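User: Please run a holo structure prediction.
Assistant: Happy to. Please share the sequence and the ligand.
User: Here you go; the ligand is fe (ii) ion.
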Amino acid sequence: MVVQTLRSIGGYVGAVAGSPVRMITPTRPAPRRAYDETLRTLSEASVEKYFNAFKDVDWDAPEMATDEDDERWILPTLDLLGAHPWYQSLPRARQIEVGRHRLTAMVKTGSQFEQLLLLGGTQFLMGVENGDPEFRYFMHELTEETHHIQMFQEFTNRVCPDVVGAPGWLMRSIPLVGHLGALYPALFFAIILAGEEPIDHVQKEAMRAGGTHPLLDQIMAIHIAEEARHIGFAHAWLEEHAPSLNPVSRLALGILTPLAMRLGSDAIIIPSRADRELMGLPDEVVREVWGTGPEAAAFRRHLFADVRMLFDNLGLRTPLTRWSWRVLGVDGRPARFRAEPPTVAA
Ligand SMILES: [Fe+2]
Ligand SMILES: [Fe+2]
């Protein structure tokens, strides 16, 4: 009885939200040749090139030593906090300490986000029919995420095990958000982009600017290589499925995606209160660095230029939804092509 009621609720929410209503549609989807080909290419690439968290990271190499007083933890000026006068005026030892905490907090939050991806991803896969190539590729992706989580957690354990990562309210909402993988997969794939795009952006910018500590650089290089496939799949999935969503669900996707973008990027970029206390980061500095200033606004806009391009192409940024992008501070010029350098993208 309880199970039946839950299924009815799930079916109703899915129908309203425009999920592919897998629970009530027994037939196989129509052939999707170009899309299937993309999935086959992604799946084969996942078999050809993949990484193992404990074989492919030189954890114990001498140059990877994670000493607490290592100057390589000092934040680069490319980081908004690293460039701020408060950080610049700190004694060298405090710069190292704050930098070590900040970098590890971002890594830990990345690991928590990827655990959410596993949670929702397995719920999504439960509904995929036999023979659908989405199953194989997405399972490859989840396999890769398990190694990313292992890498991020091992880094956290070695470098700064005191960090907390994402804010408590967000951690408590994760089990609920995971249900979107089954109930409203289009929003779940938008949430995947809300986490993967900022992480990828920050990692690429750090590597372009010359890198950080070599252990983190090695982890970021592995992550960037595999995330290219993941981000490509999320874009392809939305291109394939968003056009057939019902109007209510398209409208909801257009309005809720900017919210997911803002919450996701803030959680990854801005240290949670617990981590700010650990770092000794004053509230006024937090407001100046990540508040309403022009640098923070520009940084936020840059993170989602690719998603704006995707949503424009899908007709999901319209006069009825555009306000949400503006209000949440993630509006701006769309990228002209995927991974366009941010200095010209927005
Ligand atoms: Fe990942
Ligand atoms: Fe990923």
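The domain at 2-345 is CATH 1.10.620.20 (Ribonucleotide Reductase, subunit A).
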